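Page header: ASSEMBLY MODEL / two components / 679 residues total.
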Amino acid sequence: MGTQTLYDKLWNSHLVHEEPDGTTLIYIDRHLVHEVTSPQAFEGLRLAGRKPWRIASMLAVADHNVPTTDRTQGIADPISRLQVETLDSNCDELGITEFRMADVRQGIVHVIGPEQGATLPGMTVVCGDSHTSTHGAFAALAFGIGTSEVEHVMATQCLLMKKAHAMQVLVEGPLGKGVTAKDLVLAVIGKIGTAGGTGYAIEFAGSAIRALSMEGRMTVCNMAIEAGARAGMIAADEITIGYLKGRPFAPQGELWDKAVDYWRTLHSDEGAQFDKVVRLDAAEIKPQVTWGTSPEMVVAVDGKVPDPARESDPVKRSSIDLSLKYMGLQPNTPITEIQIDKVFIGSCTNARIEDLRAAAEVVRGKHVAANVKLAMAVPGSGLVKQQAEREGLDKVFVEAGFEWREPGCSMCLAMNADRLESGERCASTSNRNFEGRQGPGGRTHLVSPEMAAAAAIAGHFVDVRNF
Amino acid sequence: MDKFICVEGLVVPLDRANVDTDAIIPKQFLKSIKRTGFGPNLFDEWRYLDYGEPGMENSKRPLNPDFVLNQPRYHDAQILLARENFGCGSSREHAPWALDDYGFRAIIAPSFADIFCNNCFKNGLLPIVLDTASVDDLFQAVTETPGYHLKIDLEQQSITTPNGIIYRFEVDTFRKNCLLNGLDDIGLTLQHVGEIKEYEARRKSEAPWLFT
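Prediction written out in full:
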């Protein structure tokens, strides 16, 4: 086979059929399902008189619509409730494993898959959700799909696709103190742009990536889609294997040993060729803050809001103008002078235990600033919440003036009751700063958990390295 | 899926880059469990002056007169002219459903986000990539010429302007064939049932932990 990239290995091991023009049937090992993008697929399947091909490959959870406040009364919004009940009844009817709202294992689909060991190295993992790229942190080929493809996977266990180009993002050296996986991936997006990865599968590599925990690696791969790449991935190593050992869906005993032997082969071979290589020096990355309405609109915390007058490309200049208008920002304003109204620590990007620990350390013994109307910490799953509570992190957050919530997607996309009001400005650990994403007229600045926590205490952005 | 062969229609220019699927169809409308009815809420936050919620009577809502889709000269447009990286962000297929339900049949842009592009083809909506200079020319022409129509011929892979200028475009052969014939992907894949089963049997022996 010659030298292969990790992407080549994952692709080739799932190839079922290939047409001369490169259109390929790829086998899917794990199909994660949530309530928003699945009802029409289940209905399509039913209308065509088809059954799911392999029910054991599916794992379902409601996360987008669920309340993060008291759940004993169920979901207040009748339309949200119907969507969640539709998932419940589809799973009941077909015998699909689902973690319901009262189950401690419930949480954000991209948090619970890895947490349960349902995401394993060497798998193809899909979900009707663009942040499925998260699972690539486990040396899996993981990508988001639309609802028609959700139905396609249910019916055939395969997807029709063409192989993407391969990009390597090589980040060497140590990250500085106070600089996180989130800053690293925001810096990558700032460098290559939100469309820089379009048509590519990105492999993140280099010593800075290898030094990350699985939580950090998931944060990086999660945002591959924000650089335009459907899939992000990282080679398997001892950190990957250590994370998976003993997880409920992970293999046990002899099968575990056999699997581990295979997983150790899941890396790009020495000398493997990529269509594109992007290099970053980890030591040069500073804490990042987005200022605009696209994740590529990002600067270091010691930087300033850009001046559209300095942009020569008319389309880009107009984008900056529109963004600054929407964000209510003046050109050349230092980032640290931007005052915030709300703080959101959560989402499939940054709601894992390590994220909560890091944020809690920043707020411990301090209090949220008077101008901050709401600061919330939303764990990624019931199990993350439980773990955080065992460590007393909930008390740290609550004593600092944060609200400690139930798990779900929450204010990352504001599909439930958690949202920004028009004009409100939020320091958010989520992944998208699009117009209206966190609520109509809401203004989102993407940051790391540490940076969000520090902003909550100061009432404006601060450089967490000096905090 | 509806066939796509030829479309001749009015063009509307949406002059901004990186239009994301959250803008195309905001999240509150994703609570629907149906595939249809998203058209009135296409670009909801730009199109209306109030905050839209599911179940509202959209015809009574205040329109934003500055938004291009609301300008009378672009009513009933079938072709959307857009800028780079159109459809980025969320994988929601509700975005092409909304564009289709509104009446669009094709989108022309210098580039599209991958998942969105894929979702369009599954819904009989044709995403056409043209180089930036050609898109710039079309933006200028459509802005200067009321009633500007384009003729899109998928078979010939051509776009013809009212002056007879022809732009050629590339399209994946497989996708083209599916659109021209209105073929259903699942039906096509199920022609390979034998190979899928063979693959599964082989994989099960190599990597049994994937099948527990």
